[in-house]
Specification:
The protein is an all-alpha fold. The chain has helices at residues 18-21, 27-34, 40-44, 58-70, 76-81. It has one domain (9-84). The protein is built from five helices and no strands. The longest helix is centred in the last third of the chain and has 13 residues, at 58-70.
């Protein structure tokens, strides 16, 4: 099942506000400003089942992979654990 980000789900994973932690001139803010992945969900929808548990939102997954690439984070678990470091 094609997962979807609904509202502010970030509070499920950490107790601080990312907007307060990331400076306005940071690379991640620049990437967010120019990266438009709104088309991704439509293109990938045929490859997902309509039953079962929802997947990770594909846009979020691509964004996480890009962050991992930019910061040389080797695997997804490290990426998730490192999200609070190196953004200052």
């Amino acid at each position: 099942m094609l997962g979807e980000r609904v509202g502010q789900q970030d509070r499920l994973f950490y107790e601080f506000d990312l907007d307060d932690r990331i400076p306005s001139d940071h690379l991640l803010r620049h990437l967010d400003a120019v990266l438009n992945l709104s088309w991704l969900r439509t293109k990938l929808a045929p490859f997902y089942s309509h039953t079962g548990r929802p997947s990770i939102d594909p846009e979020l997954m691509i964004r996480m992979l890009l962050v991992g690439y930019c910061y040389s984070i080797r695997w997804c678990q490290t990426n998730a654990n490192s999200s609070q470091f190196g953004v200052d």
